[in-house]
Amino acid sequence: MTRYNVAIAFSQTEPRVNFIDKLAAATSRHDSLLCVGLDPDAAKFPAGLQGKSDAIFTFCKAIIDATAGLACAFKPQIAYFAALAAEDQLQSICDYLRQTYPHIPIVLDAKRGDIGATAEQYAREAFERYGADAVTVNPYMGFDSVAPYMEWKDRGAIVLCRTSNPGGSDLQFMNVDGVPLYQHVARMVAEKWNRNGQCGLVVGATFPQELAAVRNIVGDMPLLVPGIGAQGGDIQATVRAGRTASGGGMMINSSRAILYAKTMGEENYAQAAQRVARETRDAINLYRG
Amino acid sequence: MTRYNVAIAFSQTEPRVNFIDKLAAATSRHDSLLCVGLDPDAAKFPAGLQGKSDAIFTFCKAIIDATAGLACAFKPQIAYFAALAAEDQLQSICDYLRQTYPHIPIVLDAKRGDIGATAEQYAREAFERYGADAVTVNPYMGFDSVAPYMEWKDRGAIVLCRTSNPGGSDLQFMNVDGVPLYQHVARMVAEKWNRNGQCGLVVGATFPQELAAVRNIVGDMPLLVPGIGAQGGDIQATVRAGRTASGGGMMINSSRAILYAKTMGEENYAQAAQRVARETRDAINLYRG
């Protein structure tokens, strides 16, 4: 019990820039809309890390150090840690990020969604335990399932809106009064849920015209955009559809294409990750306007 | 790494009755539709447990031992463990349940929802790490976000349909072709997603007429029904609306009203939990028909 009590005391006294401002500052400082996703799959680790008890931390730390100067955010995907009972390594990664790169926001990709009393617990998990700046959440249970995250005034809640997976249309494209459901979600978040300016939305890159429709609804709200890189979304179409008037407002995520970039040759996995991260950041910047 | 590899080897060789049959057998053996929810809130623990490092396990074990003969399922809510970095205690609780009460299904209440590759990791978390018989999942990202759980042929996926919280209507009651969204979800799960007979649905107790509508759509599919007890749903209306023709097909959940039943007098918290669990089971049974 002592361990998390200490962590709680620390996080409550820690001064914080709010998520939206921190994201804008990192975007500007690194001239980047690239979010580096941390989805550590031990089966894809280099041979030298196989079987080591801290392999996940070591791998992610090397990726972070190689790409920090190129990223506007880091996005650890908690499922990869939870499957392996490696939450302690996720905590270490988040601690390392906050200590070493305190200007880069941590977006915990957890897609939580539950009633208020339970959401309070998930908010503690994301913001207190892991010290994340923002967390992804699911809108299906409505406003009171998202509100507890926004009680943390300096943090962000990034709501699932339109996802890039094949089944994304099953619900999100249902016709509600002549408009697809995901656009209602975008409007509801922008007009009702985002009371303190803490919200973002997840909108996949695979449907640029839908990204443009969401941008049109939500003004300058930050969009977390998965689906480029390994998932195949087109960078030019994605940036042109999703950018704000000032050429920002996006966290364009790439995970696997960066983490597992090493193929042949003499570069190591971190060097390969840095190379692909730089190429991706620069490709994005070509189309920011 | 050794620790989880051992757990994986164990769970893959362990013989399993499938979730639906296991639930039906426990319902019959204990003459019960009562699901005991494990939402351990350390602030509400008895004085004798305060500050102990294994307080959550000790508390839940006592509740389990006191109520096992009265329950058709146990439902640990993972958020309460995750907020306190107590996943190890959740693992111990699930291990204890499987070893001591192997005939009672464990429903991990996690409400996960993510794309396929990530959902595979969440399925490993629920079924391999915790050894759960079923897990609650969110439908917003569509079929391919739920399918990976069903690759575990002996386990169950219980899909959020209609929830009992105030914001539940924000999305779930949206009008799609003259029918509220949650009824489309019920029909989609029953007719398309439930290919191997592994699905259930979450339907809150606070709207009995909606519970009846879902029952009418889904046949004998098991329904997980939160919202009685501390949340105030009416038992008679709930059971009459949600029961199958044979008077079953429901896991009617009560968490806080059982866990924190002790008020005054000489009984301890486990005795109080047993008393309220028995009263609740018996009240439910009055209306099974």
Q: Structural class per helix/strand content of chain A?
A: alpha/beta
Strand order in the largest sheet of chain A:
2-1-10-9-8-5-4-3
Oligomer: homodimer
CATH architecture of chain A: Alpha-Beta Barrel
Count of all domains of chain A: 1
Return the CATH class of chain A. Answer: Alpha Beta
Number of helices of chain A: 13
Q: What proportion of the residues of chain A is helical, as a percent range?
A: 40-55%
What is the helix/strand order of chain A? HHEHEHHEHEHEHEEHEHEHEHH
Sheet having the most strands of chain A: 8 strands, parallel
According to CATH, the fold-level topology of chain A is TIM Barrel
**Uncertain residue segments of chain A:** 1-13
Largest interface: A-B, 60 and 60 residues
- As a whole number of angstroms, the C-alpha radius of gyration of chain A is 18 Å
Strand content of chain A: 5-15%
> Distance between the terminal alpha carbons of chain A, to the nearest Å?
51 Å
How many distinct beta strands of chain A? 10
Form type of chain A: globular
Name the CATH superfamily classification of chain A: Aldolase class I
- If you average the pLDDT of chain A, what whole number results? 93
Task: Describe what this molecule looks like in 3D.
- The structure is a homodimer of 289-residue chains.
- By secondary structure, chain A is of the alpha/beta class.
- Chain A has a single domain, classed as Aldolase class I (TIM Barrel), CATH 3.20.20.
- The first copy, chain A, is 45% helix and 15% strand.
- Chain A contains 13 helices and 10 strands.
- In chain A, the strands form 2 sheets. In chain A, strands 2-1-10-9-8-5-4-3 form an 8-stranded parallel sheet.
- In chain A, helix 10 packs parallel to helix 11 (235-242).
- The longest helix of chain A has 17 residues, at 269-285.
- Chain A is globular, with a radius of gyration of 18 Å.
- Chain A starts with a helix and ends with a helix.
- Mean pLDDT of chain A is 93; it is low at 1-13.
